[in-house]
Amino acid sequence: MREVVIVEGCRTAVGRRKGMFAGYRPDELAAVMLDNLVNRSGVTKSSVEDVILGCVTQVNEQGGNIARTAALIAGFPMHVPGVTIDRQCGSSQQAVHFGAQAIASGDMNIVIAGGVENMTRAPMFSNMPDVKPSEKLTSKYEIVNQGISAEKIADKWGFSREQLDKYAVQSHERAFAAIEAGHYEKEIVPVDIISEDGSFQTVKVDEGPRENTTLEVLADLKTVFKEGGKITAGNASQMSDGASAVLLMSRDKAEELGLKPKARIVARTVVGSDPTLMLTGPIEATRNVLKKANLTIDQMDRYEVNEAFAPVPLAWLNDIGGDPSKLNVNGGAIALGHPLGATGTKLLVSLMHELERTDGQYGLLAICEGMGMANATVIERL
């Protein structure tokens, strides 16, 4: 099997739902990101053999295979194909896995893997209005909203409301510290926006973090999914808009082109987990991917575990025995947002830059997914 490397990666800033990208078509936003990715890498658009994008709500402007339409908008020649996939919140991470598998097997040499989601223009669940789960499914499993799953995890692991809120405050504090220190500047693609009033703005800073996020403020928020519960809008991820991608290549091809890879993919996995608890998959996925990599959690210099809800990374820390100081060090989805289909490669790009910034060697990425699944990836900085 051939070695797969990441030559380049970038992302747009993440906009709040109904925020700065509310007037920006997702296919055009993805196109801006694809164009910048290729320009940064130094490869030609014609040399890319596939564009694989994750997108969860494939409806309206996100329908019709947005990977293909975005590539054409970005000026890729017509011979470059595109495909759009949905593995829920881990869609773009799965895109990386599919691209890496194509390269490792020898089918391809150069693949773009990423994702896009504009949750303002294609709201969550708008691709399945009024659709109820099959009775043949509900007869086997208790199918619940993800927020109820988060409540169940908080109860099972014994997390208090205060613990969840403290974690959320930390996410915002870390995000603001990272933005102030300029940690995200290199990875963010500036996007020019013309507002309805004709004013011009260049977007290059994440919109999600809220300065007034304190424990006192969060304590006043009402629970969303369960009366007397623990999950609020303050300790859950934000609905967001954004795009992200990485350029994958075989190690041999990178050397042939005189390119210096940023990282190599050491191991990857995907697992199914309890569809009722739904969000616990990163725990088993982490165990699996570390076993495949023949590495331990102690050897990971940084880990990104998506903050779908605060109980998710906290349960992961509890069961994996990770170091809290290595987890989501620059903030997570609670503060920065969660543009579903784009989150996987967004986090991968940030992880890659964090390893470079801190001279770290190994990084771990794990994301929980709807209906009980999770992807996990281990990378090594080169």
UniProtKB/TrEMBL annotation:
Residues 259-381 form the Thiolase C-terminal domain. Residues 4-252 form the Thiolase N-terminal domain. CDD domains: thiolase (cd00751). The keyword Acyltransferase applies. Keywords: Acyltransferase, Transferase. The keyword Transferase applies. Gene3D superfamilies: 3.40.47.10. It comes from the Bacteria. Coiled coil: none annotated. InterPro entries: Thiolase, Thiolase-like, Thiolase_AS, Thiolase_C, Thiolase_CS, Thiolase_N. PANTHER family: ACETYL-COA C-ACYLTRANSFERASE (PTHR43365:SF1), BLR7806 PROTEIN (PTHR43365). Belongs to the thiolase-like superfamily. Thiolase family. This is Thiolase family protein. It comes from Virgibacillus byunsanensis.
